[in-house]
Design goal:
single chain; mainly beta; L,D-transpeptidase catalytic domain-like; Immunoglobulin-like; 5 domains; 8-stranded mixed beta barrel; 4-stranded antiparallel beta sheet; 4 helices; 38 strands; 7% helix; flat; LD-transpeptidase; cell shape; transferase
Length: 508
């Protein structure tokens, strides 16, 4: 059976090639064609009369030696060639050869083993994945198939050269001289254009990191390409590509720092003995007060403090100058102000309190705010004690106290209303030898007592209901229940309840 299949396959193969000779011999053209396949970049270039017509992405051998290198010819062109090895008919979407085959006379074969053909897996194109053939996208192989003549030379190589450089030995009229980027003007961190000079009408590409920006040079070779502003120190690379596809050597410039360093100074009061500054990392900073001067360098994060010779009087002028590595300067001046906020202490406030007691500077203006309502506090002694009368508040409410001294310095503090109110005694609705049910404050902890001892605990649900499981308690036992809220307040004990026998479970 195996021998029979081999014989049948050979007959089919023979008949296939016998059906094409006349058509293949009929293809004749005055056009000089060339195909170059560069395995290094998995690209195919099609030339006609020395002109690059188009390039295509291809897939080649999964190892370097599978796809042969050298100069070959297209010796046959087949539409919908069957995949004999897998027994798949031509034109079948499953056919790994696609629907076009251009056979090569590589390694002693005659277009039966190696070819440029389509595929049944478009995602494979561009990869090193084939058994030796050159795969193309089906749409593109049909396009190439319609243009290429039998006998067209095919060069397969692995090279760093451009297609034009590889094709130069086949055509006399190919331009292989790369243009030069003769000048790239200075680019700073304020620039929004890269400008320079190259070959007239060359396509100039600016590469910054992973981003590319392109534009064609004018008839004199001048170019001006818009870019986003870049950080100082960023590398900008420029290349030019002429009409023949030749690419210049890259020319790089580094973005210059032309921006004055940022400089911010924290306000300084008559109580401070230091100047706190934020500026550019590693910038040199000078702090001056009259004839007193101190130099320092900012840390890697840009922050630093300069200790003053002594505390300064309100109204004193302090000058700070920051100078970065590029020599750019920034200057700021600050005036010492009276900014010592009064200290404030607030005595604890509970949900049973009717007043707020505050201790602060004597002579200050004190106000208590609860929600949208204000309650002025009155001085009760000469030592800075104030008291504001307020209505009783709910636990966890926030009370804000604002204190402003004579100089206008403000201190604002808040205090939470403490929960000092015990929850209501739980209501026990049923008690059996297995569980106690009832209602109590939501979220409270339920404790069940018998003979003065705690025998079980549970938690009240959000709907105020609780079920506490109990064990080893006989019917007739008298229990009571308490509820403890989140603040630790414990309710009065519930009314006594006598344990009843649990109903027996019935099994059907």
């Amino acid at each position: 059976m195996v021998l029979k299949r081999i014989v049948i396959s050979l007959i089919v193969l023979f008949l296939t090639f016998m059906s094409f000779p006349q058509a293949q011999q009929a293809e004749a053209s005055t056009k000089q064609q060339l195909i170059i396949i560069n395995k290094k970049i998995n690209k195919l270039a099609f030339y006609e009369n020395g002109k690059l017509v188009k390039t295509y992405s291809v897939a080649t051998g999964r190892t370097p030696g599978l796809t042969p290198e050298g100069e070959f010819k297209i010796v046959n062109k087949i539409v919908n060639r069957p995949y004999y090895t897998g027994g798949i008919k031509g034109g079948d979407p499953r056919n790994p050869l696609g629907n076009r085959w251009m056979g090569l006379n590589a390694r002693g074969t005659w277009g039966t083993t190696y070819a440029i053909h389509g595929n049944n897996n478009e995602s494979s194109i561009g990869k090193y994945i084939s058994g030796g053939c050159i795969r193309m996208h089906n749409k593109e192989v049909r396009e190439l198939f319609s243009k290429v003549n039998l006998g067209t030379k095919v060069r397969i190589t692995t090279s760093k050269k451009t297609f034009n450089q590889l094709a130069a030995s086949y055509f006399k009229n190919i331009d292989i001289k790369a243009p030069a980027v003769s000048k790239v003007n200075t680019v700073s961190d304020k620039s929004i254009y890269v400008t320079g000079k190259t070959e007239a009408k060359a396509t100039v590409t600016v590469v910054i990191g992973s981003k590319k920006y392109s534009k064609t040079a004018d008839t004199k070779g001048n170019f001006k390409i818009k870019i986003p502003k870049q950080k100082a120190g960023k590398k900008v690379t420029v290349t030019a590509k002429d009409k023949a596809g030749n690419v210049s050597k890259p020319k790089s410039v580094t973005v210059l720092d032309k921006t004055a360093p940022s400089l911010s100074v924290k306000s300084i009061s008559d109580k401070d003995n230091k100047v706190s500054v934020k500026t550019e990392a590693k910038a040199n900073v000078t702090v001056s007060i009259g004839k007193w001067t101190k130099n320092t360098q900012a840390k890697s994060n840009g922050y630093f403090n300069v200790t003053l010779s002594n505390k300064q009087k309100a109204g004193t002028k302090i000058t700070i100058v920051s100078k970065d590595k590029a020599g750019n300067k920034a200057t700021r001046s600050v005036t010492v102000i009276d900014k010592t906020a009064p200290s404030v202490s607030i005595e604890p406030v509970s949900d049973q309190s009717t007043g707020v007691t505050i201790k602060t500077e004597a002579g200050a203006s004190v106000n208590v705010t609860i929600g949208s309502k204000s309650y002025p506090a009155k001085s009760v002694d000469s030592k800075g004690t104030y008291k504001a009368v307020i209505p009783m508040q709910k636990a966890e409410s926030t009370i804000k106290v604002s204190v402003k001294d004579k100089a206008g310095n403000l201190t604002v503090k808040t205090v939470k209303v403490a929960d000092k109110t015990a929850p209501e005694a739980p209501q026990v609705t049923s008690a059996t030898t297995t569980e106690v049910k009832g209602t109590a404050e939501a979220g409270s902890i339920i404790t069940v007592f018998a003979s003065g001892k705690a025998i079980a605990t549970g938690k009240t649900a959000a709907d105020r209901n609780f079920i506490v499981e109990i064990k080893d308690v006989e019917a007739g036992t008298v229990i009571t229940v308490t509820a403890t809220d989140k603040a630790g307040n414990v309710s009065e004990q519930s009314e006594s309840k006598t344990i009843e026998a649990a109903a027996e479970e019935v099994t059907n």
